[in-house]
Amino acid sequence: MKTVDVESLKERMEAFTRSLQDDICAALERLDGTARFREDAWIRPGGGGGRTRVLEEGAVLEKAGVNTSVVFGELEEQFAQRLQGEGRRFWAGGISLVLHPRNPHVPTVHANYRFIHQGGKAWFGGGADLTPYYLYDEDATHFHRVHKAACDKHDADYYPRFKAACDGYFHLRHREETRGVGGVFFENMGGELEKEFAFIQDCGRAFLDAYLPIAERRKDTPVTQAQRFWQEVRRGRYVEFNLVYDRGTVFGLETRGRTESILMSLPPQVRWRYDHHPEPGTPEARLVEVLRQPRDWARGG
Amino acid sequence: MKTVDVESLKERMEAFTRSLQDDICAALERLDGTARFREDAWIRPGGGGGRTRVLEEGAVLEKAGVNTSVVFGELEEQFAQRLQGEGRRFWAGGISLVLHPRNPHVPTVHANYRFIHQGGKAWFGGGADLTPYYLYDEDATHFHRVHKAACDKHDADYYPRFKAACDGYFHLRHREETRGVGGVFFENMGGELEKEFAFIQDCGRAFLDAYLPIAERRKDTPVTQAQRFWQEVRRGRYVEFNLVYDRGTVFGLETRGRTESILMSLPPQVRWRYDHHPEPGTPEARLVEVLRQPRDWARGG
Questions:
Q1: Pairing of β A108-118 and β A121-131
Q2: Partner B contacted by A259 (CB < 8 A)
Q3: Which keywords label this protein (chains A, B) (predicted)?
Q4: Could you tell me the pLDDT band of residue B77, with boundaries at 50, 70 and 90?
Q5: Residue B297, pLDDT score
Q6: In contact, B185 and B127? CB cutoff 8 Å
Q7: Widest CA span in chain B
């Protein structure tokens, strides 16, 4: 790996993530119909900064964050040893988005694509995953198939590997549940950086095709108070995952990124109810069952 | 330290925490006036178990948990190395309580007293701390003075040491704020176990005196929607602390304690609003200022 390649990839990655951010925000504003993203540009004292875009209190999106950032400088020693690179010098650039829709029939979605350079090592990471409150099998299947198509264009091994990695990563050990119905997740693709960059661009560009049709067809579903309650309880699991397990959140907080940009991922309204379990046989109970036993969604679940 | 002393302390600690749990639950039911604690006795497959008591949807207490547990067995190797004892054999017994009142003028409160034995080492730990949403200086002062009195009875050094340790421990680095106005926190008292056990009993017995008068005088304060909103936003910080930093929560989840008992500490209804800052000059803004600069509450703040 030549230094010049890595430097060129950093520049192209930054341009790609910013352009993707523009396209996704524009499409989400069209989906929402009323609310607009506000933009906060921020600078990191240690080096770098970001462009945070958040939309709140929309008609369809209760809270949405679509952020890009490039941060670089020196890692704290202890934290540097926990990453896969070498030494304390680092550069990290990427896009990260989380959408929390108002209607519990529309799933929450997360996507993140990043390029990290630490010492002599550089790697891409990221993925996209879907977190429904009410499970429509066809939605999970659609989301997986769009990502599988993006994977298959590059390497037939990608989808099965990254699908399994996604189920493994988005797992709440203390709940014995996955966060949602998964998608794709990758952090060690192999090391052919140009090939990987081509892949993550296709994967990032697939996001709108994967998610918008689901949001469009569920956003006007009638909602009961009990369904809203269930959505808020399940959002609690989202918070638990992000604050206890998520490496991106820990990376952001440890590298002293901008706290409000990192924690934009947390849902707008959340409940914790002691020992709440849905009645057997209900759609709520079926969701929990499925989250305990990942399905092969690309094949139809 | 003789083995027989430690075994006797374990027995007495278990009896003490259960009796304190009974007294505190009875007093809280009287405070609330309407709701009752439900009890869940649970058994830990690896060894031990607990008595979880939770009250929800009360008139005064929106959610309250008062738990005792004794867990023992083998720690996972990696986790064992992060504790102060030696080896993987462990025993841990204690009481842990968190009260989330409905009225934002009544502070949230947490207390925890525990005895841990790992390999050849045994130690007490714990403390109590107050988390107001609206800050009444006299409440913070009262809470500190009651705990100071319990400390002073045993050692003049205790209160200043444990007050400072509390401010240091309940600190959200990513927010540059303490969780609340503190109290006392201790984990390394010195090693005279009988003396320490006498102290933690007095400290635990001080809890009701420290908290009940505050709850009684604030529980009927009129509340606006904006104040409720602020309470829910601040409860978000409580969640962030417990899931990102709290050693008790991590200990519980890592030792495969009962998840619902560990996470009873999480507030019932919570909000995350992007980059929310109170207007300068408001009571909300003053709270945040105080949380950035710990005060000497026992002397009146």
A1: antiparallel
A2: yes
A3: Heme biosynthesis, Oxidoreductase, Porphyrin biosynthesis
A4: confident
A5: 98
A6: yes
A7: 59
Per-residue pLDDT band at A3 (split at 50, 70, 90): low
Q: Tokens 């069209």 sit at which residue?
A: A30
CA–CA dist B55, A6 (Å, integer): 57
Q: How far is Cα of residue A22 from the mean position of the Cα atoms in its chain?
A: 17
A:65-104 residues touching chain B, CB 8 A cutoff: 65
What number is the ipTM of this complex? 0.94
Which of 9-48 (B) contact A at CB < 8 A?
40
- Asked if A123 and A187 count as a contact pair (C-beta separation under 8 A), the reply is yes
What average pLDDT does this structure show over A146-158?
97
Residue with tokens 């797992």: A171
Q: Rounded to whole angstroms, how far apart are CA atoms A232 and A88?
A: 40
Q: Which residue of A174, A270, A271 is in closest CB contact with B253?
A: A174
Q: Which amino acid is at A254?
A: E
Work out whether the CA dihedral A268, A273, A275, A278 comes out positive or negative. Answer: negative
Under the banding of pLDDT at 50, 70 and 90, the label for residue A4 is low
Contact (Cβ atoms closer than 8 angstroms) between residue A261 and residue A69: yes
Q: For residue A168, give every residue at least 6 positions away whose Cβ sits within 8 Å of its Cβ, in sequence order, or none.
A: A185
Q: Which helix (H) or strand (E) holds A121?
A: strand A121-131
The rounded distance, in Å, linking the Cα atoms of A83 and A100 is: 30
Domain residue extents for chain A: 6-292
Mean pLDDT of chain B: 95
Q: Is the pLDDT of residue B199 over 70?
A: yes
Interchain proximity B275–A63, CB inside 8 Å: no
Q: How many whole angstroms separate alpha carbon B213 and alpha carbon A65?
A: 43
Residue B54: what are its φ and ψ, rounded to 5°? -130, 140
Q: Which fold has domain A6-292?
A: oxygen-dependent coproporphyrinogen oxidase (3.40.1500)
Structure token digits, residue B142: 């009262």
H/E segment holding residue B259: helix B259-262
**Shortest Cα distance, chain A CAs vs residue B265, angstroms:** 9
Chain A interface mutation, best of B272, B288, B292, highest count of A Cβ atoms under 10 Å: B272
Q: What average pLDDT score do residues B204-229 get?
A: 98
Is residue B151 a contact partner of residue B97, using CB atoms and an 8 Å limit?
no
Indicate the pLDDT class of residue A2, thresholds 50, 70 and 90. Answer: low
pLDDT tens digits for A192-237? 999 999 999 999 999 999 999 999 999 999 999 999 999 999 999 9
